[in-house]
Design a protein that fits this description.
Layout lengths: L1 H17 L9 H25 L7 H21 L3 H11 L11 H18 L3 H23 L2 E10 L3 H8 L4 E9 L2 E10 L5 H7 L4 E8 L7
Antiparallel strand pairs: 1-3, 1-4, 2-3
Helix pairs in contact: 2-3, 2-5, 2-6, 3-5, 5-6
Length: 228
């Protein structure tokens, strides 16, 4: 009795799948609209990423990847929405893909998920979600990035002789700084501190370099990660 019920249940599943059309109808116009909209939103993400980038080195290829990722995700969603068997095969194929590129800036992950989300929403035909969602996310990122610009962090690297120690400390006390590393080699000292300044006010670099005994002073952009 149990065997018969099991067989009948399997037959029902098989018949339900076989009765489905091999491919659902997706018009060429819908495909073009989805690709164009995902491409435009990808370009919008491209623009926001470029304008709000605050890292050390801007990567143009990564920004281009955001545009292509939105369009490719849209294609995948439109493809797997046509047939349940094809969708299962696509999921299985994508599950074996491994990305080994290290993401240095956590904000880059946000842009990647944003691009993927745009592709999913556009491919599924939920255009208001992709458009309005992109506008809200962009507004949040722009506002928060402008607030961060008020106080920018830099690494200040100073090489000086021992006799310049008091003069260097006097100049550093005028700044907001945090000690990151100090290396002493014979009579030479290398001091690395994190300083936070507003705008492009870097006159203190010249003041420190004029201290007697200071060999050189370097100011470099700092994204928060430092390994001595």
């Amino acid at each position: 009795m149990d065997t018969t019920n099991t067989i009948n249940f399997q037959d029902i599943i098989k018949k339900s799948v076989l009765k489905m059309d091999q491919f659902a109808s997706i018009s060429i116009i819908d495909t073009i609209i989805g690709l164009v909209l995902s491409g435009l939103l990808g370009l919008f993400i491209y623009y926001i990423y470029k304008k709000t980038f605050r890292g050390v080195v801007y990567t143009h290829t990564f920004n281009i990847t955001l545009v292509a990722m939105a369009m490719l995700t849209c294609l995948i969603i439109m493809t797997i929405s046509t047939n349940i068997v094809l969708s299962l095969g696509m999921v299985g194929a994508l599950s074996i893909v491994r990305f080994r590129t290290a993401i240095k800036d956590p904000l880059d992950i946000v842009f990647m998920f944003w691009s993927i989300s745009v592709g999913i929403a556009t491919g599924a035909g939920v255009y208001p979600v992709s458009v309005l969602g992109s506008l809200v996310v962009a507004a949040v990122i722009v506002v928060l990035s402008k607030r961060q610009m008020k106080d920018v962090a830099y690494l200040l690297i100073i090489n000086y002789h021992d006799q310049a120690n008091d003069g260097v400390k006097y100049q550093l006390n005028k700044l907001k700084y945090a000690l990151k590393s100090k290396t002493v080699h014979k009579e030479m000292v290398e001091l690395i501190v994190e300083v936070k300044i507003k705008g492009d006010n870097t006159a203190f670099v010249q003041d420190i370099s004029e201290v007697e005994g200071v060999k050189n002073v370097s100011l470099v952009s700092y994204d928060g990660d430092y390994a001595p």
